[in-house]
What we know:
Elements: E1 9-10, H1 13-17, E2 34-38, H2 45-57, E3 62-68, H3 69-76, E4 83-87, H4 100-109, E5 112-115, H5 123-135, E6 140-142, H6 145-150, E7 164-166, H7 170-177, H8 181-186, H9 188-199, E8 202-205, E9 211-214, E10 217-221, H10 234-247, H11 252-274, H12 281-286, H13 288-297
Parallel strand pairs: 1-10, 2-3, 2-5, 3-4, 5-6, 6-7, 7-8
Antiparallel strand pairs: 8-9, 9-10
Helix pairs in contact: 2-10, 4-5, 10-11, 11-13
Amino acid sequence: MADKYEYLKKITFDMIKNKIPKRKPESHKGDFGKLLCVCGSKSMPGAAYFCIKSALKCGVGLVRAAIPQSIYNSVSSKISECTYIVCQDDQNGNIDKESAEIILESAKECSAVAVGCGIGWNENTKFIVNKLIETCDKPMVIDADGINVISENIDVLKKAKNRIILTPHTKEAERLLNVSCDEINQNKHKYAQKLADDYGVVAVLKGYKTVIADKDEKAFLNLTGNPGMAKGGSGDVLTGMIGSFLAQGMRPIDATLCAVYIHGKSGDICKEKYSAVSMLPSDIIEQFGNVFLSFENGVN
Length: 300
């Protein structure tokens, strides 16, 4: 296994420390971007919470969250640091396509977009995700149901107006590539690079030894993280992190590398503090501050 990944560039503490945006004394919230999060549904309100909260904790100046009305009260009562676009629900408690116009207009006012966490996989979400890809000129990270939607017509990625980051776990990658999970797990580096080369995206194949590939740069290997992170919600946390760094003006590859490394590093702290069995995605978010402090102090 080690030989397979030998040619990949390892993500290191110093590499990430040097990429984190610096804050000048005269900074204001406008200097750190505005992120639009399109997330959540009646059956998955936690996905919206994790995406929004992690974005805020990674330094973005403003977050605007487009969520269905059915979860507005539960999510907004837990997160008061962002503004909300309260969208119309469809019959299943997902965002209805009637809200697509206000979402697309809001995207024009933001510096990056994160879409897919817990939105459901249906005709309404398919319409919204495809419209964002085809018309939004801001960098975008797509996860979860956003990826499932794309799997029905992956060539829509070729219509993108700006760079897109895809963050599939193995099952989602199986749908995207029509290749078995076993084959992907055995050749994660190969299929991450294929997504990057064929569709011009930054591809993040998540899991044990996450691989990040970009068409224009060498593929990277992340060695932070542990099995305790294999819980529902961890991917939503990562999506919010990537979106936050994108909104702050980082290059898509740099935003991705920083988020993946810090996500795993925070998970490692949680493992030591709570155990791999008991740690939760919410615990991971709460450790971001310790990781950022380590960068500021220059001590790993």
